DNA-binding transcriptional regulator, LysR family (Paracoccus chinensis), 298 residues
Amino acid sequence: MDWDDLRIFLAVAREESLSRAGRRLGMDASTVGRRVARLETALGRVLFAKTPQGYAVTPEGAALVPHAEAAEVAAQAAAEALTQGGLTGQLRIGAPDGCANYLMPQLAARLMDEHPGLEIQIVALPRVFNLSRREADMAIAVSRPQTGRAAIQKVADYRLHLAGHADYLDRHPPILGPADLRGHRMIGYIPEMIFDRELDYLSETGADHAALSSNSVSVQMQAIRAGAGLGIVHDFAIPFAPGVRRVLSDRIALTRSFWLLRPADDRRSARLNRLAEAVALGLRREVARLESLVDAQG
């Protein structure tokens, strides 16, 4: 049994689809299917059952998964040893879109400068990632999971404030206290699309609904930049939005946390442990850097 066949088997088991596995592996779906069939023939076992939803792992396939994952860890360790300690290979990180847009690009740039053999994929989705299906090697979350077997690490606290664009603020009466917010257009999340309770910011302003809403924090920020109204924004995003400034920063201030999640079994991988530490440290530093720029502006 060769490692390449096990690598393809793992991709199908995680993606539950030949086409998705093929995209992840950089090969066409028909080739993936042939390789899976070859492995099944070699083992004399049926590893997948084809269903209307995709390819489901059979009990025999499930028994093979931990052995394939152990081979994966060994292959990654061997590759790392040959690069004299440098981190190599692909790293897929899932993150909510605020983190993905305003923090991850700088972090990825620094990591790739430090480790030229590293390839980074950033998956920005406004929902919780399914690590058991290997949608990502690790994911950033905005609340600590209460269930599941993920390895959990707190990364950093971050701040949010009510903000508006100077053009919008100049066209409206001064906002000296929370009572002055009445009559202003508020911008926030679509209520039924809030995938984590920690994202329910609007109540902090005393508003009961948003005049303009989106499931994307980046869209919300662009609406604020366009002068559409006021909204709660991440302080670390403000340096990317010229003209946006905090409102009632001494009265309306929120603190949230980022958490780094990984499949529990990945703690056996020295490579992934090093990557997790690098990601956590990089995010912590980037949040602090960007928030300090906002503090300097007052």
